[in-house]
Amino acid sequence: MDNQSEKAKQLEAENVSIADDVPIAFDPAETKRILRKVDYRLIPLLCILYIFSFLDRSNIGNAKIAGMADDLHLTGPQYNAALTVFFATYVTFEIPSNMVLKVTRPSRWIAFLVVTWGTIVTLQGIVKDYHSLLTTRIFLGLFEAGFFPAASFLLTTWYCRFELQSRLSVFYSSAAFASGFSGLLAFAISNMAGVAGLGGWRWIFIIEGMATVVIGGLIALFLPDSIEDVKFLTEDEKKFLAYRLRYDSGVDGAEVGSKEPFQWRYLWAALGDWHIWLAAIIYWGNSICLYGFNYTAPTIINQLGYTAANAQLLTVPLYGAGVISTIVLSIWSDNVKVRWPFIVFPYCVSMLGFVGLLSIPHPKYPGLTYGLLFTIPGGGYPPLLTCLAWLGNNLAPSWKRSIGMALFISIGNVGGIIGSNIFLANEAPHYWTGYGFSLAITVCAILATIGLRKSYQIANKHRDSTSDTQIEENYSAEELVKLGDRSPRYRYVL
Q1: Cα separations (Å) of 180 from 26, 62, 185, 209, 470?
Q2: Residue 230, Cβ neighbours under 10 Å: how many?
Q3: Which residues, in sequence order, are CB contacts of 418 under 8 Å at separation 6+?
Q4: What is the pTM of this model?
Q5: Where's it found, cell-wise (predicted)?
Q6: For residue 306, which of 115, 255, 277, 310 is within the disulfide window of CB 3.0 to 4.6 Å?
């Protein structure tokens, strides 16, 4: 067998399209080895950053029951307002941030964001009243906004479509880990009450904020920017990874744009793609339910009869369930190369949990209530990752993917504004509005998933019926690349 044929067989084994310009072929074992090199250099750093990101936005829930509400004389509506203003700036800065990311070095831009929001969290520890707390939350949302869409997009520039979600799951599940770890950390730090004359809740913000600043200062030195710039890959490995991404369109020989210059039409293409807007409803099933839950879980458990300290600790197993379900279902989804069932099934679990929480009398059965709480992170965390990977799989070229993913995350995080205001203090311990609204949006997310899957399926079927001859008669090779996911040679992931 000649050398080119051998390369072709090896590439086919890796589901890489065959073309004349393939730089070099690696067998499956070598390809896994190369991807592991990327995994070890990229994923842990993003996980560490996301842990600090989630700690810094959600530690206000721990600070509340550690004395913040009493010291600042916060009413229930004022506390909800402090949660809400974070999202007002968070959702507006995500698209501009990802546009900056595309024209600068990701490591430097992300480091700037991390250091800045860490400084703001530290200052949150010395606020004197409700209005100064609002101010810090507004700026915290502004500078945290760029990280999650930046990290999500960065992963799409390194991994092919069915390698993405399993990596995203490890990255995103660190948020569930952070939620659980936040309880342990807050429990430990709150014991510093009285040190330097400060309350324990103030030390939660100060210590976690200062740690974030240190991590942000280091990240610019270690975070890989792009395949072309890193030193831990050989030239052949760089060429091979870039080639796989270039032809990762779902159809052999169909090229995907990855280095195209910015044009305004990519912005309008993303804003006008109704699939992104429909997918945002799927995101709301996560953001509305989980943001409301994250901020209220310590209080819910506290109201079951546990002390504040034990309530902090009892949040840890809940988020452990979220970590396990996210990683298991994401790896499963990548292996079977399909997305939509891995959104519908876990949301059904959450749906049943909300029905149970609405049905039982509170706090009559604290053990049952606590058990049902597991369904919220356990069923609510995995769908977002699956939908994020699904959308990243189905957006091209790279500028549209960058803007589209940021738009999706931006719209989805509007759910944080809603979620911050549905668990009402005057409804404790039943939280009819919180559990009821969460149930309704979960059902809507399931229906949106089914609708999105049907649309992609219809588009693929139509493109399958279009012959190569028809395509070549109507489009040049350059036009097909510019069309991105609208190309007749592009196939959507279901």
Answers
A1: 41, 11, 9, 18, 55
A2: 17
A3: 284, 288, 292, 437
A4: 0.74
A5: Membrane
A6: 310
Question: pLDDT by residue (tens digit) across 243-259?
Answer: 887 776 544 444 444 45
Specify the length of the chain in residues: 494
d(CA 21, CA 6): 15
Structure tokens at 21: 């310009």
Neighbours of 182 (CB within 10 A): 26
Give the other-Cβ count within 10 Å of 367's Cβ. Answer: 8
Domains recognised in the chain with CATH numbers: 3-254+264-486 (1.20.1250.20)
User: Tell me: the pLDDT tens digits for 27-71?
Assistant: 788 888 888 999 998 999 999 998 899 888 888 888 888 889 889
The 3-class SS string of 80-112 reads HHHHHHHHHHHCCCHHHHHHHHHCCCHHHHHHH
CA distance 244 to 31: 11
CA 218, CA 213: separation in Å to the nearest integer?
9
- CA-CA-CA-CA dihedral for 108, 114, 118, 121, to nearest 10: 140
